[in-house]
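MOLECULE: protein
FOLLOWS: sequence and fold
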Amino acid sequence: MSMDMFFLELLNGSNSLFIDRFAVAFTTGYTWIPLYVSLAVLVIKNNKTMGQILLIFACVFFGVLASGLLADYIIKPHFMRLRPCYDPAVKHLVHTIAGYHANGYSFFSSHAANTMMLSVFVTLLVRGKILSPVLICWSLANAWTRLYLGVHWFTDVLVGLVWGAVVGVITYILYYKLYYKVSPHVKFISSRYTKTGYDKNDLDISLSVMALTIIYCFFRVIFG
């Protein structure tokens, strides 16, 4: 048995309608708009000049281009790998959820790449002791939903996560090299701030938004 088939059988679907609906709610891009907004506000509040803010946003935009959009518009059309749910050889084995569809080819997962890129970049940018591991876990949970829903093979997700992490690191290096061209050298020694100067109270806001979004996912399952 191949590794892809092993993880497809292990992680795809369950007998729980609750988990089915939760996975759909969690994997939907619109669900996480409040988190993205909170991270944008975090950047705006903790950077003093427009040059600093625009540099960070430009780096994130570059990261998205190099991670998810590269997968969607270059890699996937080149490899043309069918998603498990559409592959004639295995689709009869795949647990799918009515009403949920994924378009395009399978290799590699732009969901996994984008979320990991953002998580790694924000982790290096902010250096929050709680926010950083939570973001990484959030990315891994998104990756799990792609396997659970049968829209990606394990290697699609694995390559997406690795590529997203690489792009996140490269994007941060690019940011770091350009940062001091628009900013003075400042050291933050107050316990109120992280090592890179982000107010810990503002980090708590992003964590609260993430927690509330997960609660929303549960309510959407129960009442949706």
